TrEMBL record:
Domain of life according to the entry: Bacteria
Bilayer topology: Multi-pass membrane protein
Species this protein is from: Bradyrhizobium daqingense
Range of residues in the leader sequence: none
Name listed for the protein in its UniProt record: MFS transporter
């Protein structure tokens, strides 16, 4: 579990950040005056940076391993979430979302690579399925649980908390000697 859980949490965060724009659309439009086109751009920049990073991420994972690459990229995601939390204009929001997309680009592949390196082949199908299932909980979290938290603390504090949580996940992966 010491190898599996931190990588699964990283993939969970990837899914959460992927779907959270739908939840925060109303507060962003009312507070910052964004329109539907701006919201679409915020969502698109996440997916664009995520997609562009896929081939370089694969090469880096093969060269340096999942521990280093995932932990460094999650730091970028944490910075992106913190920047998003403190942004007061569209350009800064876009930069935050771009860093988020880049920062979680390796989440699934790094996790699967870590599983291949640390678990016997006969356990991989189960662990792969479990990782994908736990990751999908990130999308589930952006429904009622995140909506409740959003109503309680607001979108800025929500993203600040996600930045701290993401940085913690990065530290868990980096400091774990087993996932080298």
């Amino acid at each position: 579990m010491r190898v599996f859980l931190p990588f699964a949490v990283g993939y969970y965060l990837s899914y959460l950040f992927r779907t959270i724009n739908a939840l925060i659309a109303a507060p962003l439009t009312s507070e910052l005056g964004l329109d539907a086109g701006d919201l679409g751009l915020l969502t698109s920049v996440y997916f664009l940076t995520f997609a562009v990073a896929q081939i370089p991420v694969g090469i880096l994972l093969d060269r340096y391993g999942p521990r280093l690459i995932q932990s460094v990229l999650l730091v970028a995601a944490a910075v992106g979430a913190a920047l998003f939390a403190t942004s007061d204009n569209l350009l800064m929001l876009l930069l935050g979302r771009a860093l988020l997309g880049l920062g979680v680009a390796a989440s699934l592949t790094a996790g699967l690579k870590a599983l291949v390196l640390w678990f016997p082949k006969d356990r991989l199908p189960f662990l792969n399925g479990l990782m994908v299932m736990l990751g999908a909980l990130g999308a589930v979290t952006t429904t009622s649980p995140a909506q409740w938290l959003l109503a309680w603390v607001g979108w800025r504090t929500l993203f600040a908390l996600l930045a701290v949580f993401t940085a913690g996940c990065s530290a868990m992966i980096y400091l774990d000697d087993l996932s080298r």
